[in-house]
Amino acid sequence: MSPAQVLAFGVEQRFGPVEALQGVDLALQGGLITLLGPNGSGKTTLLRCLATITAPDAGSILIDGLDPRHESDRIEVRRRLGYQPQDPGMTRSARAFDLLDYLAVLKQHDDERTRRHLVFDALERVGLAGRAHDRVGDLSGGMRQRLALAQAILGSPTLLLLDEPAAGLDPDERFRLREIVAERRHRSTVVVSTHLTDEAAVGDTVLVLLEGRLRFVGSPETLAGTGAGRAWIQAAEPIGARASWRLADGRYRCLGTPPVGAELVAPTLEDGYLLLTPSVVLS
Question: Rounded to whole angstroms, how far apart are CA atoms 65 and 7?
Answer without folding.
Answer: 8
